[in-house]
Amino acid sequence: MVAGNWKMNKTLQDGIALVSELKALLADTTPKCEVVIGTPFIHLATVAEMVKGTPIKVAAENCADKASGAYTGEVSAEMVKSTGAEYCIIGHSERRAYYHETPEILREKVLLALANGLKPIFCIGEVKEQREANQQNEVVKAQLEGSVFNLSAEEFANVTLAYEPVWAIGTGLTATPAQAEEIHAFVRSLVANRYGKELADNTTILYGGSCNAKNAAELFAQPDVDGGLIGGASLKAPDFKAIIDAR
Ligand code: 13P
Question: Using one digit for the tens of pLDDT, what is the confidence trace for 69-119?
Fold first, then answer.
């Protein structure tokens, strides 16, 4: 899978223009991977309509940790689903860091997404100090145990994981292919311990963090790197297309 995460970028009009451009670029090709674009809530319904009949799927970047009711400004998983979106990014490091989303809150979001037929793209990853202290394995293990390893195997089968080292996000400091492979293989081994080898082998584990048209092929060539979650480079259709072609 190659998934874009627009973050808080693009007006509705600019988002429509970007999707039109991407659709045109993909028109004559059949991508070898699943293609997902993650957009702000306000774009979802329009974009989902625009990509009908194409290989492109749509993701929200977040959903509420409550089902419905008096939560001013929140958007529920049920509402996301009603737009035509199929995926929901949950636990992005920016949500954890700036909006104080705890493992418990993220567990609720994952459960609500699944209960409403959305497939979570669950993000994990260590910050720079943790990598420098060689704590990345224990960090991602705790993140998985805190928010998704409570799921049944049937539920977990709908979860995509995204390893995004925080020190690589938006910094131009990409993990090396060897660093990515090492931790992706570790993550897969954790999934295997919890759910068995078959489900682990079928789990999609994306890499995210300064992944671009130049470095994508080398990262995606690693056996346990099943694609990418792309921030900045997903905002330019030709760059995003080049990353899709690299998978
Ligand atoms: P960049 O690709 O801009 O580093 O962002 C990665 C990311 O956070 C995707 O979710």
Answer: 999 999 999 999 999 999 999 999 999 999 999 999 999 999 999 999 999
Q: Residue 242 corresponds to which amino acid?
A: A
The alpha carbon of 70 and the centre of ligand 1 are apart by a number of angstroms equal to: 32
Residue 31 contacts residue 246 (beta carbons within 8 Å): no
Our CA angle for 71, 77, 81, nearest 5°, is 135
Angle 94-95-96 from CA coordinates, rounded to 5°: 90
What count of other Cβ atoms lies within 10 Å of the Cβ of residue 235?
A: 18
Nearest to 160 by CA among 177, 144, 176: 144
Structure confidence at residue 28 (pLDDT) = 87
Distance, in Å, from the CA atom of 230 to the CA atom of 208, rounded to the nearest integer, reads: 6
Residue 173 and residue 167 in contact, taking contact as beta carbons nearer than 8 Å: yes
Ligand 1 pocket check for 219: Cβ under 6 Å: no
Query: What is the position in ligand 1's atom list of the atom closest to the CA of 208?
Result: 6
Mutation test residue for ligand 1: of 37, 229, 234, 235, the one with most atoms within 8 Å of CB: 229
Q: What amino acid is encoded at 61 in this protein?
A: E
CA dist 241 → 6, 17, 18, 38, 245 (Å): 15, 15, 12, 15, 6
CA distance linking residue 63 with residue 13, whole number of Å: 23
CB-CB contact of 84 with 56 (8 Å): no
- Residues serving a catalytic function are 92, 164
Ligand 1 atom at minimum distance from 209 CA: 4
Give me 225's structure tokens: 């790197």
* Three-class SS state of 14: helix
Let me know: does 38 contact 5? Beta carbons within 8 Å.
yes
